[in-house]
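Sample entry (242 residues):
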Amino acid sequence: LYTYEVINQDRSIFVLKEPQRIINDLINRLEKIQEELKTGSYGGPTFDSYPNLDNVLKENGCHRFSKNVGGSNCETMVYDSSYGFSEEVGTLPINELINEYLYYVKNFLIDVDNENKYLHAKLPFVSKENIGIIYQLVTNDNFFKLQEGLIENIFGDLQYINNELMYYSIKYITKQSDLIIIIILIGVLIFLFMDLAIFSKLFKDKIKEMNTLVSFLFLVPPQIINENEKFKKFLETTQTDE
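Predicted structure, serialized as tokens:
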């Protein structure tokens, strides 16, 4: 988008050379992110941590998200070396492809500053005639043709990587969920075993004690119970002082 604004020079949106400044800032940020991802200096995994993505990160090829509706696909992609978009360039691994694109963007900015090239970029973006001239320039210029092809393949690679990472994440979460379920089941089985082996024995002992006490109390003659305050209290409250 900002490369088009370099040519448009629309002063109603940007001040002089503001698009160039934004592009240079984005290039620096992108190069920094690439380096951090490559070395892991940002505190996370490196590219080597994802061997299932080697076909995109380390090998040449064209990649598209299988459910990408309406976008281009690798079978219909048109390469044209006349403006630099050869199949060899267009199918570079993602990092090299991005570096290649940034290289051409930097050269484009240098060419814009060169008075002998992109003279139409100096035209004010205010009249129908000027807009028509700028449109023809952008449509026929080799850089913009190359940019369109490179961006399309970069976007396709990123969509493919995003889809693969999502699939990996879902698979990992599902695996961990299954592991948690297994741990819970093991815990339940251990609890049941403890209940049967320990608590059940305690319950049986207590029931046996209660049966003994009840049997004893019913065997004791009533007049002995009436004469003994401890027996009477136990029958009334089920509590004893001892």
